[in-house]
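**User:**
Everyone, produce one record:

**Assistant:**
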Amino acid sequence: QVQLVESGGGLVQAGGSLRLSCAASGRTFSSYAMGWFRQAPGMERAFVASISWRGSSTYYADSVKGRFTISRDNAKNTVYLQMNSLKPEDTAVYYCAGGSRVLTPTPQMIDYDYWGQGTQVTVSS
């Protein structure tokens, strides 16, 4: 069993930056692909970024490509999402997810077994 806890959300002005962290419990974290998703009010949860188990491969949604960077530190059981040049449309609850059955980055929610509780990111214009 893996538990995921996100942190780092908050209120930021457009053009600003935030770094989200996701701390994982469990010894098998390093063998999971990890991902970030987000859900805006009234919208479905959407893929943001994913990273392979070793951190050597990443995959991004087109809407965040070039602005967001996903990374991981397996020694610390933590995955990060560095968000730069934030826009009001990035406002959402951001969720960390872990996929025990996949090693490579994937945008599919069905590939993820474990989810965090979410952290709110609000970008003001």
